[in-house]
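During the reporting period the student researcher (J.K.) took over the structure-prediction task from the postdoctoral fellow and processed the backlog of single-chain submissions. One of the processed entries is reproduced below for the supervisory committee.
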Amino acid sequence: MFQQDVHVVGNIDGNVRGHRPIIEQRADFSCGNLSSPSSSFGYYYRVTGSLTCSILADPHYSSSAYVPIGSEYDFFQITTGSFLFESASGVTVNSKNNNMNLAGQFSSATLKKVRPNEWDLLGDLT
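J.K. obtained the following structure tokens:
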């Protein structure tokens, strides 16, 4: 095993050891804007039932609600139902064939912010 010391100047978002807190999500919610109480990035969301994740437009970059570029949300559907990603006006979501639904039970997806108001959505989608 290779080990290396890392010296950082500034802040590190997330946990260096890869630990990602788990959220059991049972109601519709939003992401992409930290003004929403359920929009924590860097978490692993286990979703149940038929839910919608609304991807919100960016606030001003100096706002405390701004989600940094490179931030990720991970989703895993643990029950049957339909899990839909929808984007607000002015928000671009890049996904293969414009697929915006988790494919079903035990499907997963990652939503990654790549530019202001632009996200990549990848995973088991329909």
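The committee noted the following: The chain has one domain: 22-123.
J.K. will present the remaining backlog at the next meeting.
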